[in-house]
């Protein structure tokens, strides 16, 4: 792997226990438990973690701030929604946390449908939703990079607005990177011109290759003015000591999903977006695509990154991830359950193969 590749994990941030087969302990969502995940990520070589969002979950930014305060290198990828946040509020909050954490903030812009009325938001059709998202991203970036900003758009406006503390460029990034996902035509137009990182679900290699080329071409055609768009993959990685054990465990998990009709797995199915529907339909082409992309979870409503899994030994899964890397993927967000145990297993077994180095877990001081 090149230096540009980064490996993050996933923190579900859910009030309901047993998320996608996770351990359902009484304190599963306490600050101490979530901190233990973040500290384990630091110890076993992960860059940070995506923190999930949605109405009915704990506030993502509050969780991210708490974890950043208890860690040294952990980088939260904070999922947020336009409408729940206004641009100036998000720009200020992110700038403040970026300053206090020493530049560890990343933002994932989520435009999928949510329980908007519950927090006083509303929006129109798909084209309007993504037009608002584009304006949101443009204004947040402007507030991070300019002072005394006056902006009047169709959805948002500010007058003589300066965000403090000012965002400091760090390690080649002018501001916290804006991650974005979406597979519809409207979403791809937003990504092509205004995102820093486009996230893909676990689709087959050929489809990912086509989407990367389409986004590059679209960005050129629409006159992208930002640095080149980067690409990320959000997927479940089921790793075991042997190939045979991995597939036995994967099939057992799917059997359990079938019995419960996907309960605890389908948190992305409140409204099925274009990309999610395409992912759910992959099993119709076969239960295993490419070398080891397992599509059977999609039969039983495994939502989002739980819909397709890369299954196998660490060597099997590393080989598959390197094929995605060769297509241009540089940001990887992996996970499996139980989350805490798999942070260690995959940190020790999988990450060294991706980095071509030996595992060197370091002791991390306990939080004060």
Structure description:
This protein is an alpha/beta fold. 38% of the residues lie in helices and 17% in strands. It has eleven helices and 13 strands. It has helices spanning 31-43, 60-69, 87-101, 126-145, 185-194, 205-222, 243-260, 274-280, 314-327, 339-349, 351-355, and strands spanning 6-11, 48-51, 75-80, 106-109, 149-152, 157-161, 178-181, 197-200, 230-240, 288-289, 293-294, 309-313, 329-335. An eight-stranded parallel β-barrel has the order 1-2-3-4-7-8-9-13, surrounded by six helices. A two-stranded antiparallel sheet has the order 5-6. α5 (185-194) links the parallel β7 (178-181) and β8 (197-200). α1 packs parallel to α10 (339-349) and α5 packs across α6. The longest helix is centred in the middle third of the chain and has 20 residues, at 126-145. 48% of the residues are buried. Mean pLDDT is 90; it is low at 363-368.
**DSSP E strands, number:** 13
Structural class: alpha/beta
The amount of helix comes to 25-40%
Question: How would the global form be characterised?
Answer: globular
Q: What separation lies between the terminal Cα atoms?
A: 35 Å
Mean pLDDT: 90
Discrete helix count: 11
Numbering strands along the chain, what is their spatial order in the largest sheet?
Answer: 1-2-3-4-7-8-9-13
- Low confidence ranges: 363-368
Give helix and strand order, one letter per element, not per position: EHEHEHEHEEEHEHEHHEEEHEHH
Beta-strand residue fraction: 15-25%
Cα radius of gyration in angstroms:
20 Å
Q: For the report, how would you describe the main beta sheet?
A: 8 strands, parallel, barrel
């Amino acid at each position: 792997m090149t230096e540009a590749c980064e490996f993050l994990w996933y923190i579900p941030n859910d009030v309901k226990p047993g998320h996608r087969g996770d351990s359902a302990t009484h304190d599963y969502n306490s600050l101490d438990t979530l901190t233990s995940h973040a500290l384990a990520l630091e110890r076993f070589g992960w860059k940070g973690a995506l923190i999930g969002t949605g109405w009915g979950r704990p506030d993502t930014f509050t969780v991210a701030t708490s974890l950043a305060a208890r860690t040294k290198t952990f980088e939260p990828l904070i999922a947020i929604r336009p409408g729940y946040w206004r641009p100036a509020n998000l720009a200020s909050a992110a700038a403040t946390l970026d300053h206090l954490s020493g530049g560890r903030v990343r933002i994932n812009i989520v435009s999928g449908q949510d329980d908007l009325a519950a927090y006083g938001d509303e929006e129109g059709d798909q084209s309007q939703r993504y037009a608002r998202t584009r304006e949101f991203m443009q204004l947040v970036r402007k507030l991070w990079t300019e002072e005394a900003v006056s902006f009047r758009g169709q959805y948002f406006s500010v007058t003589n607005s300066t965000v403090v503390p000012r965002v400091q460029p760090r390690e080649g990034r002018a501001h916290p990177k804006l991650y974005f996902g979406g597979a519809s035509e409207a979403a791809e137009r937003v990504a092509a011109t205004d995102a820093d990182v486009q996230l893909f679900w676990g689709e087959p290699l050929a489809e990912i290759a086509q989407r990367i080329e389409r986004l590059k071409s679209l960005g050129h055609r629409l006159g992208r003015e930002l640095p080149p768009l980067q690409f990320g993959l959000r997927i479940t990685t089921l790793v075991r000591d042997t190939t045979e054990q991995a597939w036995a465990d994967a099939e057992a998990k799917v059997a359990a999903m079938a019995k419960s009709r996907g309960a605890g797995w389908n948190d992305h199915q409140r409204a099925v977006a274009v990309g999610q529907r395409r992912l759910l339909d992959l099993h119709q082409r076969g239960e295993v695509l490419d070398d080891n992309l397992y599509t059977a979870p999609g039969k039983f409503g495994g939502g989002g990154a739980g819909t397709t899994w890369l299954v196998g030994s660490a060597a099997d899964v590393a080989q598959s991830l390197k094929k995605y890397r060769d297509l241009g993927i540089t940001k990887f967000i992996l996970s499996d359950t139980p989350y805490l145990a798999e942070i260690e297993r995959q940190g020790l077994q999988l990450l060294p193969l991706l980095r071509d180095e030996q595992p060197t877990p370091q002791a991390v001081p306990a939080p004060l």
